């Protein structure tokens, strides 16, 4: 996911036309436009401030989509934050069911966002053409949607505009979640308030202008999409916006009689007006209707960023060398050092073209077999925590009776992580590397049978392992500073943060708040804490 500047690719697209050999252009025809290594083709779509064109990597031969954003139009329409946010989020994420960003090429007049090419059109058109789908087909789409949304949520990204128009289909009819322009990273210490998305798919708390934590609004939208897949229509629809809003706020919709009991049960738990009572993704994953014929690659929750580091595929490497002529050692060095340049982009393009899901990945899996792994069961966790508690200083005074802080609403059901509004190119970082596969901790939610004191002791243990400096001004608050000796944080990139334990109605919430530091160093620090915690 490299970023290039105008000095690297030329000031404008017209200057780059000269790099195309004249002999390859038929007489009387305009030479193709070339942006960096990409030759632009037909227009795929036109937006309010740019176009999306088909592109071809001249060395790899791989087809891509190139979104051309005119800088002056973006600035004039005050859309700079939206564009910046979408590019930042695309850089952070890498999942089979999310649109993949390859690189960003910048010129003085335009920004070229190069993403994977999706040929199957929108899920919306698919539903319009086919009508209501058989439950097996609807379930397959829904499983892929939940897999992508869960991945976003585990990386603290809330989409906020999920609808069939933003779900693209590839040549194998696999879902790709697109249009992350309205997405946001959960901000720490406060709820999101912006009314985003399309009214028909928006949750009651969104259209009411109420604060919301984030994940629960995506759950509602997924419920509406599931209804559309199974019924060929929307649960909430009215020509009058006022009447539509009344229906959504009251949760008034009719469930068709032809739906199976399992589908009816799942939809009814997703389209719940009270966000606190709404089903969570973790609960959706365990629902019998969802787990039926669940593909193997979706059978476990997606890893957090630190588990995404992959080994180099030798077949892909050889093909990359053959197609591009790039030196093998430069490709290997760039991949191993997390660089984002021409070598890694070429490797990723070829890898994506070769790496199709094999039959074993698409086979259903018995979900019951996924809850008995040695070393990470409930018993082993309790044993570990009890050892920590028994070795703790009994004079610490930590009590298991945790009050609900007066400044936190009892409606809070999700932790949020802070984010600065500004995005600097130097802050863009590759995949995080934080050691072993992380344990489950969803957006700061501590969803376990542990007591408050046990959770605090686990936080102390994690910070000690990370060798961060910390102090505890109160029983349930920790102020921490990342280690200057850690290679991930330079002296100028150290992060100061506060970890606060709260209690809501039926769970504990660990809220992480940024005090001092830059955007991506803070996100990295959050990932490191999550990876180290041994709380499921």
Automatic annotation (TrEMBL):
Residues noted as binding ATP in the record, renumbered to the chain: 67
PANTHER family: KP78A-RELATED, MAP/MICROTUBULE AFFINITY-REGULATING KINASE
Enzyme Commission number: 2.7.11.1
GO cellular-component term (any): cytoplasm
Protein kinase domain boundaries: 38-290
Stretch list, region Disordered: 1-29
Classification via Pfam families: Pkinase (PF00069)
Low complexity composition-biased segments: 19-29
Keywords: ATP-binding, Kinase, Nucleotide-binding, Serine/threonine-protein kinase, Transferase
Record carries keyword Kinase: yes
Family of the protein in this entry: Belongs to the protein kinase superfamily. CAMK Ser/Thr protein kinase family. SNF1 subfamily.
Domain of life from the UniProt record: Eukaryota
GO molecular function terms attached to this record: ATP binding; protein serine/threonine kinase activity
Protein name (Swiss-Prot/TrEMBL): non-specific serine/threonine protein kinase
Gene Ontology biological process terms in this record: intracellular signal transduction
Catalytic activity as recorded in UniProt: L-threonyl-[protein] + ATP = O-phospho-L-threonyl-[protein] + ADP + H(+); L-seryl-[protein] + ATP = O-phospho-L-seryl-[protein] + ADP + H(+)
């Amino acid at each position: 996911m490299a970023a290039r500047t105008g000095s690297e690719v030329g000031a404008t697209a017209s200057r780059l036309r000269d790099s195309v050999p004249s002999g390859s252009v038929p007489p009387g025809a305009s030479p193709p436009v070339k942006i960096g290594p990409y030759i632009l083709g037909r227009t795929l779509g036109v937006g309010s401030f740019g176009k999306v064109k088909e592109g071809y990597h001249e060395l790899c031969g791989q087809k891509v989509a190139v979104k051309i954003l005119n800088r002056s139009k973006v600035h004039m329409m005050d859309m700079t934050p939206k564009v910046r946010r979408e590019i930042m989020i695309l850089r952070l994420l890498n999942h089979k069911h999310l649109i993949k960003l390859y690189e960003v090429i910048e010129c003085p007049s335009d920004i070229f966002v190069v993403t994977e090419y999706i040929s199957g059109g929108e899920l919306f058109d698919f539903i319009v053409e086919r009508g209501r789908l058989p439950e097996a087909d609807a379930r397959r789409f829904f499983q892929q949607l939940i897999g992508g949304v869960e991945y976003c949520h585990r990386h603290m990204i809330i989409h906020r505009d999920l609808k069939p128009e933003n779900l693209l289909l590839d040549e194998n009819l696999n879902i790709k979640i697109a249009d992350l322009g309205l997405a946001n990273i959960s901000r720490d210490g406060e709820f999101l308030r912006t009314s985003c998305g399309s009214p028909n798919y928006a949750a009651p708390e969104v259209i009411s202008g109420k604060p919301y934590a984030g994940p629960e609004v995506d759950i509602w939208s997924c419920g509406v999409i599931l209804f559309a897949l199974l019924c060929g229509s929307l649960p909430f629809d009215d020509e009058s916006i006022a009447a539509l809003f009344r229906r959504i706020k009251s949760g008034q919709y009719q469930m068709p009689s032809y739906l199976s009991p399992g589908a009816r049960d799942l939809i009814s738990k997703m389209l719940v007006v009270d966000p606190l009572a709404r089903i969570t993704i973790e609960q959706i994953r365990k629902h019998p209707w969802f787990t039926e014929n669940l593909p193997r690659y979706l059978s476990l929750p997606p890893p957090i960023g630190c588990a995404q580091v992959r080994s180099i595929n030798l077949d892909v490497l050889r093909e990359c060398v053959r197609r591009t002529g790039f030196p093998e050692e430069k490709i290997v060095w760039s991949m191993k050092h997390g660089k984002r340049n021409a070598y890694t982009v070429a490797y990723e393009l070829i890898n994506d073209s070769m790496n199709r899901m094999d039959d074993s990945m698409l086979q259903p899996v018995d979900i019951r077999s996924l809850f008995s792994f040695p070393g990470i069961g409930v018993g082993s966790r309790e044993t570990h925590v009890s050892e920590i508690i028994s070795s703790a200083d009994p004079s610490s005074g930590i009590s298991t009776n945790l009050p609900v802080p007066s400044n936190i609403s009892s409606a809070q059901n999700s932790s949020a992580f802070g984010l600065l509004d500004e995005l600097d190119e130097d802050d863009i970082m590759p995949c995080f590397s934080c050691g072993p596969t992380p344990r489950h901790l969803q957006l700061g939610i501590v969803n376990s049978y542990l007591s408050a004191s046990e959770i605090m002791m686990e936080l102390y243990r994690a910070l000690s392992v990370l060798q961060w400096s910390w102090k505890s001004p109160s029983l349930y608050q920790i102020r921490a500073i990342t280690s200057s000796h850690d290679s991930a944080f330079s002296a100028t990139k150290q992060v100061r943060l506060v970890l606060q334990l709260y209690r809501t109605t039926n769970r504990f919430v660990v809220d992480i708040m940024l005090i001092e530091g830059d955007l991506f160093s803070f996100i990295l620090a959050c990932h490191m804490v999550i990876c180290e915690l041994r709380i499921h």
